[in-house]
Design goal:
Length: 435
């Protein structure tokens, strides 16, 4: 049965090549078309190459703020009407922001492709950025920050890690940014940010699903072709000095009762081969109950309530974060020692061929799943073009994972995962005795 499943999955991977066409309008807007008539739906999505790292250090949170603000309305879509138009025409929509980019999309029945294209062109060409919209979204963002960060257990984990891992790069602040910065910003500053970044030559448009290509091209030219090219964006390069000795830090969180120990390592850009090897390492160590750390520290030794690791991959640098919740009488130091022992094992012993095959099967499964919907395909196409500069990675990245060897896993673990290259953060409950 296992062999049959592997063969079936391998067949699915090889058969699941994503065919696409790409071209660029005169104004610099890159267009990617992916035709799939298997379901009568179509997605129109626009990804802008602007994220939290493009902000003024005194005005953090702008990119995420615009994720909200650009739903406020346009010259031809009245305030409060955007979502009504989408749902009234059988569609759904959403947006999200990272440190590196901002992404908007609509999914409609196939017969509403023109509507989706017009709406995204309106967002780019005619956004209404006024004080009413800014004030409204300011309250929305403040509530989001309260829910996700301020009042959420372990909500300050990522912000605290970022602050300590980056001293020069804008990755040091969170995507949601500072509420004080947003409060202090003028309307003109918001308008200038829009004019600088939300332009055709800083974006990629993806249309995926069931549509007629020739008709789509006509509509794209009609609605997006008239938008003027913006001024070229000058991008700064920020370099971090290597971490050469352990950074020790402590944070008190009033929302938790169980302490957490965190070990974090700075890693290379997600575009590098080493970043993919680190993905494998993360999976070996902590992905699921059969992973090495979970099996040893949670199941066998009962030293932790929970253990985990993940790669926080980004365009310029990444962060590899390991964490554990000690179970008494075990301490944070005990957990860290066990984590280190498993890392040393990866640095000195080759993983077995059986483990390697298991990794490859898991990534094959992720690949199939990530391209199983038009939403997944559209976002992957946009990401690979905008951040990786190679759209065809949607088809070939899985081959990179398949080419990773046990020797590479050992060498990459040696290169990046050493005690003198990391942050150790004691993330603990607030000490109420001091209150």
């Amino acid at each position: 049965m296992a062999l049959s499943a592997t063969l079936l999955l391998g067949g699915a991977v090889s058969a699941q090549k994503v065919a696409f066409e790409e071209y660029t309008l005169d104004n610099g807007l890159h267009v990617i078309l992916q035709n799939d008539p298997s379901a009568p739906v179509v997605i129109t999505s626009v990804m802008y190459h602007v994220g939290a790292k493009n902000e003024n250090p005194e005005r953090t949170g702008f990119a995420h703020f615009f994720e909200h603000l650009l739903f406020e309305g346009t010259e031809n879509i009245k305030r409060g009407e955007w979502f009504k138009i989408v749902t009234g025409n059988g569609g759904t929509n959403n947006a999200n922001t990272t440190e590196d980019r901002t992404y908007y999309y609509e999914v409609f029945p196939s017969n509403n492709l023109e509507l989706g294209l017009w709406m995204e062109a309106e967002r780019m060409l005619h956004p209404v950025i006024n004080q009413i919209g800014v004030d409204t979204q300011n309250e929305v963002v403040k509530e989001e920050k309260r829910l996700r960060y301020d009042n959420s257990p372990y909500g300050q984990l990522i912000p605290e890690v970022k602050k300590k891992m980056f001293t020069n790069h804008p990755y040091r602040w969170t995507t949601i940014g500072s509420m004080e910065h947003l409060d202090a910003a003028t309307l003109a500053e918001f308008q200038d940010f829009n004019k600088k970044f939300y332009i055709p030559n800083n974006a990629v448009l993806v249309v995926a699903g069931d549509f007629d290509k020739n008709q789509a091209k006509e509509w794209i030219q009609k609605y997006f072709g008239v938008i003027k090219k913006g001024a070229a964006i000058e991008r700064e390069t920020f370099v971090e000095e290597p971490i050469t000795k352990t950074i020790k830090s402590k944070f008190e969180d009033p929302n938790i009762q169980i302490p957490m120990v965190v070990a974090s390592y700075r890693t290379p850009s997600m575009k590098t081969r080493d970043a993919r090897v680190l993905d494998f390492i993360s999976t070996i160590l902590s992905d699921g109950k059969s992973s090495r750390l979970y099996k040893k520290i949670v199941d066998d030794k009962k030293m932790a309530l929970q253990i985990g690791a993940f790669s926080y991959s980004q365009e310029d640098y990444g962060t590899y974060i390991l964490y554990g919740l000690p179970q008494a009488p075990s301490t944070a130091e005990n957990i860290l020692a066990e984590i280190d022992a498993e890392i040393v094992k990866l640095q000195t012993e080759l993983i077995s061929n059986k483990e390697l095959k298991k990794l490859q099967n898991k990534y094959d499964n992720q690949y199939v799943n990530s391209n199983s919907t038009i939403e997944g395909i559209a976002e992957n196409l946009a990401t690979f073009h905008l951040l990786y500069k190679d759209v065809n990675l949607i088809n070939t990245e899985i081959e990179i994972y398949h080419s990773i060897t046990p020797e590479e896993i050992r060498e990459v673990a040696k290169k990046y995962l050493n005690p003198n290259q990391r942050l150790v953060l004691d993330y603990v409950p607030t000490d109420k005795s001091n209150n």
